[in-house]
TrEMBL record:
Residues 104-133, 182-211 form the 4Fe-4S ferredoxin-type domain. The keyword Iron-sulfur applies. The chain crosses the membrane at residues 330-355, 367-390, 411-435, 455-478, 499-523, 529-549, 582-603, 615-641. InterPro entries: 4Fe4S_Fe-S-bd, 4Fe4S_Fe_S_CS, DmsC, ET_IronSulfur_Cluster-Binding. CDD domains: DMSOR_beta_like (cd16371). The keyword Transcription does not apply. It comes from Shewanella violacea (strain JCM 10179 / CIP 106290 / LMG 19151 / DSS12). Signal peptide: none annotated. GO terms for cellular component: membrane. This is 4Fe-4S ferredoxin-type domain-containing protein.
Amino acid sequence: MHSGSDSDKAGVGLFTPETGSSIKVTKANVLPKRGEEQLGRSDHWEVRTEEQAYAYLPKTDSEIENRYGKRIDLVELTDNPVGRSMFINDNPAVGTNPDRNKQHGFFFTADNCIGCHACESACAEKNDTPAHLAFRSVGYVEGGSYPDYKRMNISMACNHCDDPVCLKGCPTRAYTKHAEYGAVLQDPETCFGCGYCTWVCPYNAPQLDPVKGRVSKCNMCVDRLEVGLKPACVSACVGNALDFGVIENTPESREQCKTSIPGFPSPEITRPNIRFQQTKSMPEEMTRTDSMPVKYHKGEDGQYKPVIDQKVGKKQHWNLAKLNSRENPLVLFTLFAQAALGTFMVPFFAALAGVELFELFMASDMMLVLVVTSLSMTSFGLFMSVTHLGKPFRFYRGFNNLRYSPMSREGLGLALFSAGLGLMAVSLLATNTWINELLVSGFDIELSVLTNALPLVNLTLGAGVFAAIAGAAGLYYMNQCYQIKARPFWNHWQTLTSFVGNSVSLGAMVSGVMVLSTLAVLSLPLLPALQLLGGVWLFGVVLEAIGLIGHNRDLNASENEGGAAHYIQCTTFGKTYKLRNLMLTLNIFASLTLLALGELGLFNTQGLASESVGVNLWAFVAWSVIALINCISAVIGRALFYNLVIPTTMPGAFFWKNKGFEQHARDIGLADNPACGVAPLAH
């Protein structure tokens, strides 16, 4: 409760959240006379004749800090000057709203919402959104039994959070948190359509348009705010469920100012600027009508927490066709980029560690082939990531937000890794026998003579170390891209073990082909290199298996959206999940057996030219089969990774914001009608 005299308001006092705000909002004082609606206001928005009183923003006192301890006056917080223009629609005028530099937010009274969708319609009309997008949407949860069956509607748009994860995640810096109204605005013209902001937002506020290939979202109707009007959705609400104003100011005739209601994700993720009232008693359990296997159970503290709703039963299925998704480019990007890192690092670090056979390989002409192979795999992976963008020709904007975005840092790390490999390849050219012979015979150029004065060995080593450091950074930030609180299935240390494990096992496999073939041509012993590569490969697979065991244990005990995603993994994709785990287990035991046989001397030969060539050949065949199984396992595992995640998103309705209905509409052809509101499978 705010304490102190009136002089404490708007200058000194602090907000105490235990019992809510003491500041009550009253209606606008004096409505403008007919024909004078625009008098004294900026020209950002034309005020309608006889605009209703509830559409005007009142001038009120406000708290100093919100319940999260952040100052409401954003000029004091940011040191930005008062009276800045927001250049709305390129209009340089400054709005006339006296509270324009204070954090504003929505207030939703769930008791009053009748589910008429007038707020959706007003928002769509003002922003001219297509049928498959909605900046504001109404979903609902329901529970109980006849005759006491209850439904609670939830109208939700962007909450213009104190800690906007969309802003921090966006690699193009398309988002800005303004000191004016605290609005989080997004520029669709800057966006290149990666959709990462739609992953990190818990409230489904950013909307990715697969037709235009870019994201857009609620802009708080800042043009209306500048002239003292509330957002269009609030003005259109017929049930007095939606309101808007300076945050922590409780609207007239409201007794609560809560930060959550059933179905609303944890406010601790982003500290959203929305407050709720929901006084009507609700059943102990509330279910969603969309296809998400999540429901909400009231705890002892009276708060509703998500729990698993076993909507599809417990029967296990294959559903291999459903592994094909719009995220396929990311499956290939992550696997190829990780394999490229391992392909280079395994033999490079083995040589640096003084392993003689790998030192000989690094000094051979095939080292250039390995470096170029790794560079090509990285380039292909990056190309696939670009094809995933809605606006692929804007890919260069991905480095705009290195300060905050792990996606920008991931891209930079892989780009520097590629640059290091390129520099290493150039330094290896001068000492490569094949290249020198080609230049001499074709162009009479002796490259070795031209570069004789250069410290090529040091350049090669330095470029390799640089590439290794950059690649490790790229892999680390690749993992950080998926440590998302709004996606608990990904937000687990298993993601890191999977990425590192795949990098090691796939890298050992690809590099092993080149290393062993080179040693065979040089008539050098193969078994020691095969054993070392097999051991490294086994480490990668075991690391992945450890992560999966921990993931399974933690999500089996979880009741949040991560546990729900694991439930889908064990049912809808249950047989596919078991197949992947069986492959992984088989590979571990098979590789242990082969390594043990090698240590016992059963593969003790000196090379392919020896008399025991059959034994060596069978060893290679066995390792090749294991490598093939590992590739299949990796592809299945990564496809499951992208298909299974369930976000902490807001509840949808039966026909709207319902993934199950959207898929059904596509299956029967209903989605071909644009008015259906189901986005085409594009992007």
